[in-house]
Amino acid sequence: MKISARNQFHGKIVGIEKGATTAHVRIDIGGTIVTASITNNSVEELKLAVGGSAYAVVKASDVMVAVD
């Protein structure tokens, strides 16, 4: 598979929490946990499982910076 998004982070799936329609998939990327919200159907289609590997692909049009 090829994708145009530049922000691709490879990691290990450390948690999958399914809700009524949406799942939260947690991916450990070098000690940092990234959480993605995807459909339960996508979890099944991608055959995601804890311990498996996956990419977190980030596509954003804006990055904001804030301070206290």
TrEMBL record:
SUPFAM superfamilies in UniProt = MOP-like
Source superkingdom: Bacteria
Q: Where is the Mop domain?
A: 2-67
**Which of UniProt's keywords are assigned here?**
Molybdenum
Q: Does the keyword Ribosomal protein apply?
A: no
> Residue span of the signal peptide, if any?
none
Q: Which Pfam families match?
A: TOBE
- Some GO term, biological process aspect, for this entry: which one? molybdate ion transport
Q: Tell me yes or no: is Isomerase among this UniProt entry's keywords.
A: no
| NCBIfam families, A to Z | Mop
Q: State the protein's name.
A: Transporter
Q: Which organism is it from?
A: Manganibacter manganicus
Phylogenetic placement of the source organism: Bacteria, Pseudomonadati, Pseudomonadota, Alphaproteobacteria, Hyphomicrobiales
